[in-house]
Amino acid sequence: KGNGAGGTFNICATSLTPPATPANDDPCGAIALTAGASCTTIAGTTVGACPSSSVANPSCDNYSGGDTWYKVTTASSGTLTVTTTANSITDGAMAIYSATACNGAFTELACNDNTGTSNMPEVILTCLPAGTYYIRFWQSGGGTGTFNICAVFTAGLANDDPCGAVSLAAAASCTYTTGTNVNACNTAGIPAPGCGSYSGGDVWYQ
């Protein structure tokens, strides 16, 4: 007792088993997401997760650890959309990286806190080259819990670059071919044209 006098009190001890560490606690255990034409949502958790010391802290939100990892592999260039929704976590954050390997050098491509539904993150990356991309998720401000995640991938256009140029038939009269530059990217390695205020998003014909 603080003043030195005697008295009675109660005391006990309990032994709690900590939650198991998730298999995807680090990038080399990242769970592969199926990135199709529509979202195939899977349940995720950060319960029992630890900070990922092998990758620098993300550039957004108030990161304090407790992250888990996912990955998406694309066979061609295109647009990748990664969406999360709430479960016991109602305010999450997410970063997406390119990497030389799961235990190699990581480059952050995007970091997001509240773009998606309510306070959950969503990231849209356009004109991504083919490759494997790593997704890091954590609870905003710390703590752990459960959430949902999915990925959608839209392949780029076949004639986005000169080597995929669509052939036009040159006849005595014009026969129109319908074209689109939706999801088209900039063409690297060729000087920009001198007219039309070029800012990318071009497609090619021959």
Structure write-up:
- With 206 residues, the chain is an all-beta fold.
- Helix content is 0%, strand content 32%.
- The strands form 2 sheets. The chain has a 5-stranded mixed sheet with strand order 1-4-9-6-7, with no helix packed on it. Strands 2, 3, 5, 8 and 10 form a 5-stranded mixed sheet that branches.
- β6 (92-99) and β7 (106-112) form a beta hairpin.
- The mean pLDDT is 93.
Any key phrases for this structure?
206 residues, mainly beta, five-stranded mixed β-sheet, 10 strands, 0% helix
Q: Give the number of helices.
A: 0
Q: Which strands sit side by side, in order, in the main sheet? A: 1-4-9-6-7
Mean pLDDT: 93
Identify the overall geometry.
elongated
SS strand fraction: 25-35%
Cα Rg: 24 Å
Q: Which stretches are low in confidence, meaning pLDDT under 50 for 5 or more residues running?
A: none
- Along the chain, the helix and strand elements come as EEEEEEEEEE
Distance between termini?
A: 91 Å
| Total beta-strand segments | 10
Helical fraction equals under 10%
Given helix and strand content, the structural type is mainly beta
Main sheet: strands, sense, barrel = 5 strands, mixed
Brief digest:
The chain has 206 residues and is an all-beta fold. The protein contains no helices and 10 strands. The chain starts with 30 loop residues before the first strand and ends in a 51-residue tail after the last strand.
Furnish the topology, listing elements before pairings.
Blueprint: E1 31-32, E2 35-36, E3 42-45, E4 68-74, E5 78-86, E6 92-99, E7 106-112, E8 122-128, E9 131-139, E10 146-155
Parallel strand pairs: 1-4, 2-10
Antiparallel strand pairs: 3-10, 4-9, 5-8, 5-10, 6-7, 6-9
